[in-house]
Amino acid sequence: MPDQPTIPIPLDRPDVRVLRTELTPARELIIEVESTLATATCRRCGKTIDTFYGYDRPLRLRHLPSFGYVVYIQLRPKRFRCPFCDNYPTTTQRLSWYEPKALHTRAYERYLLLQLVNSTIADTCQKEDITPDAVQTIIDRWLATELDWDAVPWFDTIGTDKIALKKGHRSFVVIVSARCPTGELHVLAILPNRTKETVQTWLESIPATRREQILTVCCDLWEVYVTAAQHALPQAVIVIDRFHVARHYRDAADSLRKQELKRLQQELPKAEVKRLKQTLWLFRKRAAELDAEEQERLSLLCAHSPALKQAYTFREQLTAIFDSACSKAVTVQRIKAWRRRVEASGLSCFAAFLTLLDRWLNLIANYFRHRQSSGFVEGLNTKAKGAQAPLLWDLQPRPFLPAYHARPARLSPVQPVANGIPLPVVVTPGSPGEPCFTPPQRFVHLPGLE
Asked: Are 168 and 179 in contact (CB under 8 A)?
């Protein structure tokens, strides 16, 4: 290859020096390195040994891509003989930046995990020209199958919620999250389904000392969550999320709006019907958020349908009760009074919600003890839905996948990215608080690429 301008890029792999580099016609960059360490740890006795015995077979490990090239690091691991053990066994030296028997560096495996965010295994395999089995192996290596409870800060509140892996398939996973008193959030587990046996078994697997510290469980109206928590965490207060409750009574009022609009379209003149268009969001907005024009249009709709006016009023009254700063006992009395008024009104749209209220009122009213809800669970799940759902669908079913307590899979915060590809960091010598990549033997000199 003719001489071309070169640029130095730090390889950023510890304990090695670069021997040579090669650019192949297949757009592969081969970086041959050798270890700078002169010792190893005996595989039998665990002592440090330094009697050099030769080299093991060459390893070729795929590394982070650069400049559109597929990068491989080639290494012949050193072997050492142990003078302390019988028969003087030999041990192959292992470096920190790759796993034994792996085909990729740890940095490239972290990069692949990032590629899986908001993607699927099949898509990632196609983009990276890698087999599904290799990706699955990396996932299995980096995602723990058991939670290290010693690494989780103390928490007293947990929440459960589902994520639909594919719409219309009724295939769900359950996210179990924890909130610490400091407000710090942690995802504790991803359960493969939302059956009582699965949820209860996982809750009972929490160490007894940590389980006794859980004071609150936030969940939606799925009965499985409630019964599992009651059996596994009898000391905890179960809080049914107020926003899931609000969805039910707001949907009840909205169902009446649809019915009334259909009736009015048949009974009113076309000119009058036209004035009632685009009232969906007006009806769904809270009364205090309506401006003068919106109030006028909503009043017109309610004038044609007294029943709809009643439903809107009842909906706003119950929302005001949830927004009030009353005790649980007072709130229960106010909700019961609200229920009697709805029942006396003769409105049928709230019938299903009243049945729900009779069944779950005590747990719904637990919200007024400390104003706790599943908001923190929903926030984490929203991120998971956008970033992890495609990946979760690809993963093989397993009882437990801790999403936030896997081995660290995050790139350095100062690592630059070019066209979506993380690049090695070039740090100038002397930058305060930053590593200084000065040894020339750890730099890769790349020809100017067109």
From this structure: no
DSSP calls for 222-250: -HHHHHHHHHH-TTSEEEE-HHHHHHHHH
Is it the case that residue 398 has pLDDT exceeding 60?
A: no
In tens, the pLDDT along 157-204 reads: 999 988 877 666 577 888 899 999 988 888 888 888 999 999 999 999
CB 157 within 8 A of CB 214: yes
**Closest by CA position to 210, among listed 174, 180, 240:** 180
Listing DSSP states for 355-398 in one string gives HHHHHHHHHHHTHHHHT--SHHHHHHHHHHHHHTHHHHHHSPP-
pLDDT bin (cut points 50, 70, 90) of residue 84 is very high
124 within 8 A of 116, measured Cβ to Cβ: yes
**Residue found by looking up tokens 């081995």 in the block:** 407
Q: DSSP string covering 66-108, please?
A: ETTEEEEEEE--EEEE-SSSTT--EEE---TTB-TT-SBBHHH
The pLDDT of residue 443 = 52
Taking 60 as the threshold, does the pLDDT of residue 257 lie above it? yes
Helix, strand, coil percent content, the chain, rounded in steps of 5: 40, 20, 35
